Amino acid sequence: MNDFKKGYHTRTNIVKDEKVDLVADSNSGLARWRTCFSQLLNVRRVNDVKRTERYTAVPLVPEPCAFEVELAIKHSHITRY
């Protein structure tokens, strides 16, 4: 729909090379992507993998103890209309 509304515009695929220079040539861009993913996916040693921060699904708030649950239940009966 956007092509009909605004007219067709060609897209420019620009990537950065290893020296952080912009590359607009499609063959050079594809070669850069190939190199990038090759380095990312073809790790030969554990030392090649960069250490990254790991996120877990551990809750930030601890689970309530039995006393807190009982207190919340008693409190909910008092505040009901």
C-alpha Rg, in Å?
28 Å
Which series of helices and strands comes N to C?
HEEHH
Tell me the fraction of residues in β-strands, as a range: under 5%
Helical element count? 3
Helix content bin: 40-55%
Distance between the termini: 53 Å
Overall morphology? elongated
Output mean pLDDT: 76
Main beta-sheet annotation: 2 strands, antiparallel
Structural class: mainly alpha
Number of strands: 2
Order of strands across the widest beta sheet? Answer: 1-2
Outline the low-pLDDT stretches: none
Can you tag this structure with a few keywords?
81 residues; mainly alpha; two-stranded antiparallel sheet; 3 helices; 2 strands
Please, could you describe this protein's structure?
The protein is mostly helical. The chain has one domain. It contains 3 helices and 2 strands. The chain has a two-stranded antiparallel sheet with strand order 1-2. Strand 1 (15-16) and strand 2 (22-23) form a beta hairpin. The two termini are 53 Å apart.
Summarize this entry quickly.
The protein is mostly helical and 81 residues long. Helix content is 43%, strand content 5%. It has a two-stranded antiparallel ribbon with strand order 1-2.
Topology summary:
Blueprint: H1 2-6, E1 15-16, E2 22-23, H2 26-41, H3 66-79
